[in-house]
Amino acid sequence: MQKILIIYTGGTIGMIKQNGVLVPFNIENLLSKIPLLSEFPAEIFTVSLDKPIDSSNANIDFWIKIVDIISINYENYDGFIILHGSDTMAYTASALSFMFANLTKPVILTGSQLPIGLIRTDGRENLIASLELACKTKNDEKALIQEVCIYFESKLFRGNRTTKYSAEKFDAFFSPNFPLLAKVGTKIDIKVENLLYPEKENIKIHKNFSSDIVILKLFPGISRNTVKAITEIPELKGIILETFGAGNAPEDILDFLKIAIDNGIIIFNVTQCMNGKVENIYAVGENLANIGVVSGKDITTEAALTKMMYLFGNNFSNNEIKKLLQQSLRGEIS
Ligand code: ASP
């Protein structure tokens, strides 16, 4: 029998209403709402963060707590399910994908849009299907899924390819530029050709993340002063520049971006569009490449941010960071 560890970090799935608003509650209450879990054909164990949170409060320390739980228990379990709020789940999934190198076991984040205590909850199916997916093995009995994923509303996604796009649909996540890893209906259809496997088997954990990064979302009419002030933030190491369309930016801010790059700040170009990629089609996009802005191709903002946090936290040189940003480290970029 497979041994799976469920890690409860908070989020709607385990919340209850207090004074009219939803607040995180405890794992015992959550599990009591799914009595059928005792019949699930695997050994299921649970652990909870001391203080479960609404995932809007997630930060680097919170990711490290999750990583610590998984690393302490890594050898003793066949897979890990992380119950997590959906609001920042794509960020946590992306961060964990960089924190774990050479993962050989499934780490599946899931949660729900309605608390598990409500009769119409989506949490029950999300949790049970995640457990089933985590238990899948290959012919050699090793885990079939060996990466950080998100499972939501019948779909298994590569975690660092997802983004939350709906605040109310059960179908809340979307993987704009990478196909599904599995689709769950009456049958579980795993798209084996899309799964990622590590080149080596010895897991490595990277907990040093830098927060000296900012996301600068462009908009028509953005003032030069705003851009200047952002590029002059003390200690700033990296800027995720959320550009228009295929990676385009207004010409009147180029001088400040160039000064920032000359001062050693790395600027990573990510499109604001929900789908598609940064490519030099237009002069206003090529301008950015010409001053040394790094193309983020089809990476999501969530993955771009956490990838920069990882690279700046781990003593790579600026030249190495520029190169690695454009390469796939955990399947996050095409
Ligand atoms: N605010 C909640 C959270 O992210 C939303 C959810 O779980 O769906 O913790």
Keyword list:
23% strand; Rossmann fold; binds aspartic acid; 334 residues; 4-stranded parallel beta sheet; 18 strands; alpha/beta; 8-stranded mixed beta sheet
How would you portray this structure in words?
- The protein is of the alpha/beta class and 334 residues long.
- The protein folds into two domains: 203 residues, 3-Layer(aba) Sandwich (Rossmann fold); 113 residues, Rossmann fold.
- Helices cover 27% and strands 23% of the residues.
- The protein has nine helices and 18 strands.
- Strands 4-1-5-7-8-9-12-13 form an eight-stranded mixed sheet, with helices on both faces.
- Strand 8 and strand 9 form a beta hairpin.
- The longest helix has 14 residues.
- The radius of gyration is 20 Å and the shape is globular.
- The mean pLDDT is 96.
- Aspartic acid (ASP) binds next to loops.
Total helix count?
A: 9
* CATH uppermost class of the largest domain: Alpha Beta
User: Class by helix and strand content?
Assistant: alpha/beta
Strand order of the largest sheet: 4-1-5-7-8-9-12-13
Percent helix, as a range, is 25-40%
Distance between the termini: 36 Å
Number of self-contained structural domains? 2
